[in-house]
Model the fold of this input.
Amino acid sequence: MADLDIIIPLYKSRDHLDSLIVRLNEWNATQNLELQVIFVDDGSQDGTYEQLIQKTAKAKFSIRPIQLAKNYGQHTAISIGLHYSKAPLIATIDDDLQHDPFQINLMLETLHKENADLVFGMYGERKHNMIRKIGSNLLKKILLTSGSDYSNTSSFRLMRSNVIEIFKTKHLSVVLLEEYLIKYSSNIQTCQIKHEERKQGNSTYSSWKLLKMAMQIMLFHSSIPLKLITRFGLILSIAFFGMGCYFIYNKMIHNVPLGFTSLIVAIFFSTGLLLLSLGIIGEYIRKIWISQNQLDQVIVLKK
Done:
């Protein structure tokens, strides 16, 4: 069994597989551990998987290739890799060499020194474009308002096998991997690493894909919409109660036309109560979703 599994999701990575394997070979030559790299081809249509099979002989480490039927997204591809990993330590890196394998040494040092379950590699200076930087920071700040702190997370991770037990039981389609990893980790640390320039090609994450992913995270992996509906409904209920009292007063003092007051009061009160009720029902549905995805499990640290 390997001492360390490295999971690398691939998507249209045909052109830089050579340089990726060469760099992994260089790093592996400096290590005194048994390494396995799990490559997960996320439904590429450019022959990435076939190219990977051809390059297997050039690797000086164990390779486990996995091909998905279609493009499910980076987080799901990694979750499949976690399902098939068996090593006590698991790392995840990107396929474009912006995550240098040599930086894993710093993360290993942090993990052992701090006795951590999960270590995120934090970039001193990110080499992403400005729009992606702004979007990422904005999304993390929005999620923070819902009580989910992802400010110190990245796709460069090192973790112990106990963190990924949930992925061992079934193949999970995942939008936000950190939601599971953070939940099942008792000691999370960060380590500053260097974010390299992209060696070649362009990112397969277009602005539209990033926006779509951000919307999925906010809508399905946070309680922000439900909280907005509930609070908006509560505010409207209070406001409409005051307005209803005003119309009742007008009816009693100024004798406004019959039926107008009752109609306005009924509409105002019912609108506020409906919004408030929808928010409460939504919270119950969210709790069911959390339970179904096993995000409410009790973690036993020692036994």
